[in-house]
Amino acid sequence: MTMMKRAVDWLDVRLGVRELWEENTSGYLVPRNINAWYSLGTVLLALFGLQFLTGILLLIHYVPDTEKAFGSVETIVNAVPYGWLIRNLHAVGSNLIVVVLLLHMLSVLFMGSYKRPRELTWLSGFILFNLGLGLCLTGYLLPWSQLSFWATTVATDAAGAVPVIGPKLVEFLRGAPSVGAPTLGRFFALHVVVLPGALMGLVGFHLFCVRRCGISVPPFGKDAKPARVGTVFDHEKHPGGIPFFPNYTAEEAAMVCFALAVLVAVTFFAPQIFIPLDALEPANPFVTPEHIKPEWYFLWAYQTLKIFPSKLIGLAAQGALMTFLALLPFIDRGEERRPAKRPLFVTCYVLGLLLLIGISIWGRYS
Ligand code: HEM
Fold first, then answer.
1. Is the CA virtual torsion 282, 283, 286, 292 positive or negative?
2. Percent of the chain predicted with pLDDT > 70
3. Helix/strand/coil for 157
4. Which residues form a coiled coil (predicted)?
5. Closest residue (by CA) to atom 38 of ligand 1?
6. Which residues contact 248 (CB under 8 A, 6 or more apart)?
7. Does residue 1 surpass a pLDDT of 80?
8. Counting atoms of ligand 1 from 1, which one is nearest the CA of 105?
9. Cα 39 to averaged position of ligand 1 atoms, centre (Å)
10. C-alpha 285 to ligand 1 mean position (Å)
11. What are the C-alpha distances in Å from 6 to residues 1, 24, 88?
């Protein structure tokens, strides 16, 4: 103990670590009426942390070669001790991350916390959302199953609708006219190096923005405050709030445990929800499975490409929606954050959400 104290004393003299700890734990006050939705960011950090860990363990046995990839995943699941657990945690975890990303985004939208001065927090978050989806898309190909092969064929095919450069773009994405070894190579590089690296850097920036701006006050009850419009930087403090550590972190830990419980329950009892039959057959470029559907979170995009008379219009509609969402804090500039006082926003929010769910269900059963 005294050794530990002496080590901290030594560091304290040089770096002032006690002050730093105090400032960021019990001295860092968060709003008194903070709610469970604010813990989803931490849940994401925990889930991504686990994804990195299981991903590294999978890398020990996975072989990114079209002849060997499927077999190497089979070996992981059937022969490597606890390999099935690591593989299923990674596959189910990716789906849970998309769920939590959506909930984090939806709560930020509903509470108007994307508004000034948090535009950069929102923008970095929105890019993180896209990086997350990119990780799912590239990871899906790696087991080189029938599902991987055909889902990637359909997804990359969509880029062909872009005018003029479409066909070249498809070939660029695949590295060849059709999905094959060059596609596996580039998706592997993206999935294990490029996208995780970009994600880590951007998470750092996102957390910096959150900490620098200060946590927003939930826009409910008498504590509600409008978005601030001042022209000078002002860290939002919460005098009379609750300490971030240990009080709020204890609440966050409970949410993280809940998320892990869901993850473990699905991994143990129902992994087939996310690992369907076509995922258990090796890729065969000559046999197209009867019902090839993308993952649930891409169904809305898949179906919009089918609804419109031309794929180009569908692609343009998707691009317009994503651009609108990315730029939302610059478009919706009102100071009001209370949902009850933003009837137009809340109406569009609910209808938009129902529409996306409806289109996804339609895509699933069409
Ligand atoms: C890798 C993914 C992400 C991680 C690890 C992450 C992490 C966090 C954390 C820890 C917080 C602080 C507490 C909280 O409100 O939860 C936060 C806040 C925030 N996040 Fe994220 N986030 C991610 C993705 C996103 C996405 C996709 C969006 C929206 C498009 C977003 C927008 C925001 C905003 C606007 C805040 C400020 C909330 C406030 O002060 O009220 N984040 N994020």
1. positive
2. 100
3. helix
4. none
5. 113
6. 30, 34, 242
7. no
8. 29
9. 9
10. 40
11. 9, 22, 44
Hey, what are 228's tokens?
Answer: 């601030």
Q: Which of 39, 40, 45, 104 most suits a substitution to test ligand 1, by most atoms within 8 Å of the C-beta?
A: 104
Q: Quote the ligand 1 centre to 45 CA distance (angstroms).
A: 10
Rounded Cα–Cα distance for residues 209 and 154 (Å):
37
Amino acid in position 342 = R
How is 111-125 classified by DSSP, letter by letter?
A: TTTTSTT-HHHHHHH
Pocket mutation for ligand 1, best pick of 50, 210, 242, 322 (most atoms within 8 Å of C-beta): 210
Among the atoms of ligand 1, which is closest to the Cα of residue 129? 27
Fold of 36-228+236-293: Cytochrome Bc1 Complex; Chain C (1.20.810)
C-alpha separations of 350 from 181, 212, 295, 322, 362 in Å: 43, 31, 23, 17, 18
Pairing state between β 242-243 and 29-30: antiparallel
pLDDT digits (tens, 9 = 90+) for 126-138: 999 999 999 999 9
